[in-house]
Write a sequence for this structure.
């Protein structure tokens, strides 16, 4: 057996050093682990990786070596949500209803199948890693430690296996690395067609994956802390190309046509190989970019486009911008010196003192794993500093004779000279190298996609059914949807993670509080945020799962998904469904009562269920999304519409206070308005309630002109009698006496809640509050029906 096979074999041993079912029987878990490894024909070996991983994922507990160890049986385990800290009683009920022996038999059968079908330890490792969360139902909720049940055994096994790959002699010498590419917004926003938007997003995912693949093939994809990669199409294709048999256990859908990776990844790699692997990552990205540009030139020549090759080559080196950073898992003394030098108010001295006192009371000796939170913070700071000091490659071009049509700049504002004259049915575009590559990207990488034009998307408005001539559309509007998780930087860095006191078992609290010295330590530890590799993997996994279901929701609303990476979404939809789509996406993100049509998945109470069984945590009710929506005519410039959507998204976060949406609407007259709201006001779902109000008005034949009458300048005179003013206007607009009172009361109640919210929460004046409320209803109606009389 060669050294590489031994390497993968040792990683399998680390991946199953604890059984997935450990929580069911903590006392005998090592016996179960030995049986699993025997099935896989791997010898058990426990090295320094397990204590280091445990220190990373947990916090110090007394009486581990001396005294009566704190023991929590499975029956006593308190399952907690990793991001809210709330108890998950339904999850516990699920496991208590299961036949544990049957679960173990099922696990054994699946392991045997993967072993039989993968004839090398390298292939077997990749197959086991890919399927790890799916070998036992609900395993992403099974805790690694029943005393601190906020992180999954899957996450602990992943980090242990990743550290095993950093073994040097008898010691684990590891580093964190980060690799990012850009510029992001500039690349995506340079677009005239939906095809251009898609290509800009996909290009970034395609290039960053070149570096991820480099790390994954060398050390295993378990080394990647974020983004989450299980179920990802790019990884699945890599493993299939390597001949890895994956089986059919992964229920999460992968989609080759969706850009599903962010422009940044973080990984654990051997300390001695940091310089080499970062160079390899940069090279793999640049090589893939060169491959794309070379194939683009071939296509341009084949199709006989007007094409200045010398200018094209000059621009190849301008993209991409690659930033890297690394931090070594140094010894605790060095960590403390670095943190005190660079950061203020981190209380690392108090933390170390707490570790020492716990050790004196039978806890384990501190190791570098306990300082993971500081390593990650330092890595983020290094990468941010490099981005802030971003250097721009020199760019200058000569005047090239013989290309009179290519003397202008790139039409999409790329800051370079055009080098390709791209002619299609609609118009002629003058493109630089980057935008020429984007135009040919689907063909070059072999993805066959039907790119709906903005006219095709507008045609999907319900008002346009059976209308073939775009000039006769009753509703010619589309919606450009941008969504983004609120304060996700703080979530990712752990600033919003639950404090330790919310996730530990009561027995652990009691052990600290019963001892005078330990009780003082507990006052320090209980407020600490649970920032650990398992936490970062958990956030990344949850965002990854969310992104893999976005396309189902967008397609249900007759839209086209452009990008879905983590908490970011970009989609084009018919105007009449874009707001409802956004509302459903934000509910799914938090895990609030959403079913995925055509799937067996349901999001409820911060949990994703599969066939009625808990499958994985979602972000939970404390995590929210905001949306910016540009509602424009289908002939409106797409590049400008995208800028409008970004401006609306900023207003949703800044003006409306996050957990909100904002619509930027260009009316037929050319007037542009921005209107928005929180998603929920009290217990009222603003989108659903507003839609019901409009439907009731339509069904009861209440003239929509009543909304314009309420918006007349007169309303500012009736602040004290606004409800009576509403009654007066509506009574003159209702053409039937049936349900008249009910309609008036419902609209009054709705308007009052909205106006009160704007005035009390956002400090709008009465005039601003009424205007925003009515403009929203009018705009929503226009989105549903178009600007028709």
């Amino acid at each position: 057996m060669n050294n590489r096979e031994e390497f993968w074999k040792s990683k399998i041993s680390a991946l199953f050093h604890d059984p997935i079912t450990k929580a069911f029987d903590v006392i005998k878990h090592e016996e179960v682990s030995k049986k699993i490894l025997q099935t896989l024909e791997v010898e058990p070996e426990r090295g320094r990786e397990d204590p280091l991983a445990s220190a990373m994922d947990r916090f110090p507990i007394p009486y581990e070596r001396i005294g009566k160890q704190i023991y929590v049986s499975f029956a006593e385990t308190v399952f907690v949500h990793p991001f809210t800290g709330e108890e998950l009683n339904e999850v516990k009920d699920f496991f208590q209803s299961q036949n544990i022996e049957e679960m173990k038999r099922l696990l054994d059968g699946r392991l045997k199948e993967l072993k039989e079908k993968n004839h090398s330890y390298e292939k077997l490792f990749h197959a086991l890693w890919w399927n790890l969360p799916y070998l036992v139902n609900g395993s992403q909720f099974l805790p690694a430690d029943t005393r601190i049940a906020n992180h999954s055994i899957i996450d602990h096994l992943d980090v242990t296996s990743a550290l095993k790959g950093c073994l040097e002699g008898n010691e684990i010498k590891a580093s964190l690395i980060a690799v990012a590419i850009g510029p992001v917004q500039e690349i995506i926003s340079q677009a005239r067609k939906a095809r251009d938007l898609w290509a800009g997003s996909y290009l970034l995912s395609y290039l960053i994956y070149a570096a991820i693949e480099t790390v994954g093939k060398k050390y295993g994809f378990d080394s990647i802390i974020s983004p989450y990669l299980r179920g990802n199409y790019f990884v699945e294709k890599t493993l299939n190309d390597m001949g890895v048999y994956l089986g059919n256990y992964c229920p999460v859908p992968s989609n080759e046509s969706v850009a599903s990776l962010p422009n940044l990844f973080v990984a654990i790699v051997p300390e001695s190989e940091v310089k080499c692997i970062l160079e390899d990552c940069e090279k793999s990205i640049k090589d893939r970019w060169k491959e794309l540009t070379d194939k683009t030139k071939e296509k341009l020549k084949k199709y006989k486009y007007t094409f200045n090759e010398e200018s094209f080559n000059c621009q190849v080196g301008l993209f991409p911008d690659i930033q890297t950073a690394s931090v070594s898992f140094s010894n605790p003394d060095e960590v403390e010196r670095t943190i005190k030098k660079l950061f203020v108010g981190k209380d690392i001295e108090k933390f170390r003192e707490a570790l020492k006192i716990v050790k004196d009371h039978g806890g384990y000796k501190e190791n570098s794993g306990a300082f993971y939170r500081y390593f990650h913070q330092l890595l983020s700071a290094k990468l941010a500093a490099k981005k802030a000091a971003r250097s721009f490659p020199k760019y200058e071009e000569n005047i090239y004779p013989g290309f009179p049509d290519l003397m202008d700049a790139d039409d999409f504002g790329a800051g370079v000279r055009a080098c390709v004259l791209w002619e299609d049915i609609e118009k002629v575009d003058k493109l630089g190298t980057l935008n020429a590559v984007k135009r040919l990207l689907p063909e070059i990488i072999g993805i066959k996609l039907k790119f709906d034009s903005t006219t095709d998307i507008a045609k999907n408005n319900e008002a346009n059914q059976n209308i073939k001539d775009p000039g006769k559309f009753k509703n010619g509007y589309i919606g450009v949807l941008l969504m983004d998780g609120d304060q996700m930087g703080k979530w990712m860095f752990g600033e919003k993670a639950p404090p330790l006191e919310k996730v530990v078992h009561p027995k652990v609290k009691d052990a600290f509080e019963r001892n005078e010295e330990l009780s003082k330590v507990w006052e320090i530890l209980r407020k600490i945020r649970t920032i650990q590799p398992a936490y970062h993997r958990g956030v990344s996994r949850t965002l990854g799962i969310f992104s893999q279901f976005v396309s189902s929701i967008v397609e249900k609303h007759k839209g086209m998904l452009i990008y879905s990476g983590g908490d970011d979404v970009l989609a084009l939809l018919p105007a009449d469904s874009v707001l409802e789509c956004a509302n459903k996406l934000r509910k799914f993100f938090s895990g609030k009562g959403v079913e995925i049509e055509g799937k067996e998945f349901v999001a409820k109470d911060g949990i994703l269920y599969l066939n009625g069984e808990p499958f994985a945590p979602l972000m939970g009710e404390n995590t929210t999304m905001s949306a910016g929506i540009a509602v424009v005519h289908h002939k409106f410039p797409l590049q400008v519409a995208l800028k409008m959507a970004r401006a609306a998204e900023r207003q949703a976060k800044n003006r409306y206070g996050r957990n909100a949406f904002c619509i930027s609407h260009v009316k037929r007259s050319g007037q542009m308005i921005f209107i928005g709201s929180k998603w929920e006001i009290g217990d009222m779902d603003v989108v659903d309630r507003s839609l019901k109000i409009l439907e009731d008005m339509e069904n009861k034949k209440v003239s929509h002109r009543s909304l314009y009458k309420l918006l007349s300048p007169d309303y500012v005179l009736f602040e004290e009698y606004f409800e009576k003013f509403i009654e007066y206007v509506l009574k003159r607009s209702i053409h039937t006496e049936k349900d008249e009172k009910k309609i008036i009361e419902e609209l009054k109640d709705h308007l009052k809640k909205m106006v009160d919210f704007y005035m009390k929460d956002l400090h709008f004046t009465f005039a601003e509050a009424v205007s925003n409320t009515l403009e929203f209803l009018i705009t929503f109606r226009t989105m549903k029906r178009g600007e028709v009389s």
